[in-house]
Amino acid sequence: MTNFEQIKKFAEDDNISGVLSRADHETLNVKDGVEMLESGNLNLLGAAADELRKKSVGELVTFIVDRNINYTNVCSSKCKFCAFYREAGAKDAYVLSIEDILSKVDEAVKLGATQILLQGGLNPDIPVDYYEEMLRRVKSRFNVQMHAFSPPEIVHISKLYGASIKETISRLHDAGLDSIPGGGAEILDDRVRKSISPNKIGWKQWGEVMLAAHSLGIPTTATMVFGHAETLEERVKHIIRVREMQKKYNGFTAFIPWSFQSENTQLIGNSTGVDYLKMVAVSRILLNGYIKNIQASWVTQGLSIAQVALNYGANDLGGTMIEENVVRAAGVPFHSKSIEEFVYSAKKLGRPVAKRDTLYNIIERY
Fold first, then answer.
1. What is the spatial distance between Cα 39 and Cα 16, in angstroms, rounded to a whole number?
2. Were both Cys, which of 89, 258, 274, 305 would link to 301 (CB 3.0–4.6 Å)?
């Protein structure tokens, strides 16, 4: 009897037994996902997700050394969940010069970073030339992956160009864009989006950006921010919509669920550590066979919960994040993590661990 068969046997008296009996060989639907999220048996969900993780990616825990640079905090979107954005005339509003960005990249590279996560607000006063020149100058000096511009930013830049989304991505790629982060997804449902971010792109346009990038051979990640205005069904629909997009080009390298942080925002957060672990587990189960890498969010949950998530379907600890500003603005104490902390967390679980690049190629094992 395989481990997964044993789990199904233990689940026989549980209300999710029918779902888990199909999880390793069928593509589950919205109803299945909601049943799992409504289940009180967190350990059973975690055990099932952990077995699927082993089958998909094995025991290896991975991480990347990176820096998150926010080039501006001025944003016309004014999302209710965001504590980072500022009005253009605010005293603490800023736009980093390209020299400032080069200095930050230089510092990150000297600390071992292989990825620069570059995102900012939708600032109407930044000229379109800024984006291309910034990419060109970074890539001319540094051998780093420019993981840059979330879908809302891509749409914003496309309007500045007066070009299509696909043409915009192509131009940015020619200038040095290597991959696109999954930010701006929040919950991929327009009811939720109209409530929390009415000035931001709808979920279908988020998907349009991602599929355009994938069609050009440009990889992306997918994220989900949960625990604010959404229902359990809307959480599941989000994951399934990502899964449907993945079927076309297989361009998502990872899925990253993280819980909403409410301090200094206009919304109230309503998720716990248990909710987070359940979301990680359900994400692995629903995405089984489609997206291999599920990332644990130590930035929002802390490294201890992220470590637990490695037994609930996650296989990756994300980045050391030499710098992070957006979640910190929402009241979460932030301290970048060292390689030693990640290695210790994985080895404490008896798992092998390795530093990776953005595309999950292994750089060094520990």
1. 7
2. 305
- Domain borders along the chain are 59-365
Q: What is the pLDDT of residue 330?
A: 40
| Predicted local distance difference test score (pLDDT) of residue 261 | 65
- In CATH, what class is 59-365? alpha beta
CA proximity to 112, closest of 323, 358, 322, 360: 322
* Residue bearing the bigger pLDDT, 272 or 244: 244
pLDDT digits (tens, 9 = 90+) for 295-335: 998 988 889 999 999 999 999 999 998 864 444 444 444 45
Q: What is the C-alpha to C-alpha distance for residues 219 and 177, in angstroms, rounded to an integer?
A: 11
pLDDT tens profile 170-198: 999 999 999 999 999 999 999 999 988 88
Question: What are the two backbone dihedrals, phi and then psi, of residue 2, each rounded to the nearest 5 degrees?
Answer: -75, 165
The reported pLDDT for the residue numbered 75 is: 79
